[in-house]
């Protein structure tokens, strides 16, 4: 069995990431912990609400209840990206060309590398932001669908409409699909037609017994893993129409114990599966083979991240039960 190096923190862990092979753990309190020749702590926010791993610069972007957007580098240095007094930064996203998106209330703000900021207002509250993999384009999840904005081009957004509350959004790695998590127990997707003016095609992914709060694309974008069931539900996206008319894989089924977090391996078609009882399994898409990475612990798994080489997995729980799994043993 792989070895686990534990780290006991006090509160709910919002997110984890490896920055230059150093594991970082972000607590809801606003404290950021990293294991770099010992346990070190950064007081980043007065209450942490959102974070994203900026892979281009290998840094962590965070948004807080204090109205600040911060950037934290691998050496623990912290810098202010943006500040919105008396606002809660509910969403942050790292984009290409040094762009950073953040949102509070009904407006998304995109700060470009040159320091200029562009604002994109919505009619309803912003619930999620994602950058397209190519080009400066953002998808903004809100009530009744997604707004698609070109950051560098003036004009009306392209709207992807579907009734209901959309609580998060992601692009497929090839940019052909946009998928949202919903307030109801479902995902919704759109296939983006390359033809100008053509309608995006809808994809409904339903049947979950709980809300989907974790999504992760496989390394080559052929699969989308999701939480929200007593197994990791993994939808096939290798065909031109994505999962339409196809059944998903169900990996790591454990009776009625719910999957709370999923994280796909950076190179292999493998997904790490975190459960409400603190257990973590790894499962392979090809044959559903499972490997136990961690036995049950304190609190539901709320965050996981692989190291760049895929040999280590950092995790955190709702009770502050954290650690790093070393697959080399």
UniProtKB/TrEMBL annotation:
Q: Which SUPFAM superfamilies does the protein's record reference?
A: Quinoprotein alcohol dehydrogenase-like
Domain (Anaphase-promoting complex subunit 4-like WD40) spans: 266-326
Instruction: Tell where it localizes.
Output: Cell projection, Cilium
Please classify the protein's predominant subcellular localization into one broad category: other
Q: Which InterPro entries match?
A: Apc4-like_WD40_dom, Quinoprotein_ADH-like_sf, WD40/YVTN_repeat-like_dom_sf, WD40_rpt
Q: What is an example of a Pfam family matching this protein?
A: WD40
Q: Which UniProt keywords apply?
A: Cell projection, Cilium, Repeat, WD repeat
| PANTHER family, per the entry | IFT140/172-RELATED
| Protein name per its UniProtKB record | WD40 repeat domain-containing protein
Which organism is the protein's source?
Sinorhizobium terangae
């Amino acid at each position: 069995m792989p070895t686990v190096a534990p780290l006991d923190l006090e509160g709910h862990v919002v997110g984890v990431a490896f920055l230059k092979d150093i594991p970082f753990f972000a607590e809801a309190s606003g404290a950021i912990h990293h294991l770099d020749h010992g346990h070190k702590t950064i007081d980043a926010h007065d209450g942490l609400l959102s974070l994203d791993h900026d892979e281009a610069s290998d840094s962590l972007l965070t948004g807080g209840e204090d109205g600040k957007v911060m950037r934290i580098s691998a050496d623990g240095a912290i810098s202010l990206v943006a500040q919105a007094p008396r606002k809660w930064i509910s969403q942050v996203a790292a984009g290409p060309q040094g762009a950073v998106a953040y949102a509070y209330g009904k407006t998304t703000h995109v700060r470009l590398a040159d320091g200029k900021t562009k604002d994109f207002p919505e009619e309803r509250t912003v619930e999620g932001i994602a950058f397209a993999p190519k080009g400066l384009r953002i998808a903004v999840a809100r009530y009744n669908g997604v707004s698609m904005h070109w950051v560098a081009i003036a004009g009306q957004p392209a709207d992807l409409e579907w009734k209901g509350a959309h609580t998060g959004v992601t692009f497929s790695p090839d940019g052909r699909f946009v998928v949202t998590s919903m307030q109801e127990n479902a995902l919704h997707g759109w296939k983006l037609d390359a033809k100008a003016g053509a309608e995006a095609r809808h994809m409904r992914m339903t049947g979950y017994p709980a809300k989907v709060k974790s999504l992760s694309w496989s390394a080559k974008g052929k699969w989308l893993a999701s939480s929200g069931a007593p197994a990791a539900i993994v939808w096939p996206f290798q065909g031109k129409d994505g999962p339409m008319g196809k059944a998903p894989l169900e990996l790591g089924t454990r009776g009625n114990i719910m999957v709370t977090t999923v994280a796909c391996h950076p190179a292999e078609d493998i997904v790490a599966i975190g459960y409400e009882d603190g257990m973590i399994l790894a499962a392979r898409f090809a044959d559903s083979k499972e490997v136990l990475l961690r036995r049950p612990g304190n609190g539901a798994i709320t965050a996981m991240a692989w190291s760049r080489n895929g040999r280590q997995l950092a995790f955190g729980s709702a009770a502050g039960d954290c650690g790093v799994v070393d697959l080399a043993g």
